[in-house]
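Hi all, posting the design record for the shared folder.

TITLE: backbone redesign
STEP: 1 of 1
STRUCTURE INPUT:
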């Protein structure tokens, strides 16, 4: 598989994985807070207070990044910088949640860590695929 294809597929998967989160947080913020994902309640389990404004803002920001991601894949432009943006979002997000797993059972801990790790892993793969060797033309 070509590096271009790896880069496009990695970014496309990120957009696909993040779309349900973005839509639910934007359109049904309280449901996202209490039920995400699929009734598991990962966000509410942390014990923080619900804030509709903050949840909607997160959903809209994710949706904006998804739009830029889809555009870059479609146009085959700026994919490396979009991958870097997802890495900037994904690593601290992952790091935060790794340190805050206390309210979740083992299955939810594994699911949360696996799902959150997928974004920086795919972003890093996309970045790698976007790198051109000095000798490549």
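Okay, here is what came back for every position:
SEQUENCE:
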């Amino acid at each position: 598989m070509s590096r271009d294809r790896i880069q496009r597929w990695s970014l496309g998967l990120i957009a696909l994985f993040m779309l349900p989160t973005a839509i639910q947080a934007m359109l049904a913020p309280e449901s996202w807070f209490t039920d995400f994902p699929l009734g598991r309640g990962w966000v509410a389990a942390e014990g923080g207070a619900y804030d509709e404004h903050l949840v909607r803002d997160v959903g809209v920001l994710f949706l904006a990044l998804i739009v830029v991601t889809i555009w870059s894949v479609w146009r085959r432009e700026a994919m490396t910088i979009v991958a870097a943006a997802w890495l900037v979002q994904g690593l601290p997000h992952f790091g935060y949640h790794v340190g805050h797993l206390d309210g979740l059972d083992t299955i939810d801990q594994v699911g949360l860590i696996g799902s959150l790790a997928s974004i920086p892993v795919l972003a890093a793969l996309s970045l790698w695929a976007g790198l051109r060797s000095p000798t490549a033309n």
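COMMENT: Residues 3-130 form one domain.
Let me know if anyone wants the other runs.
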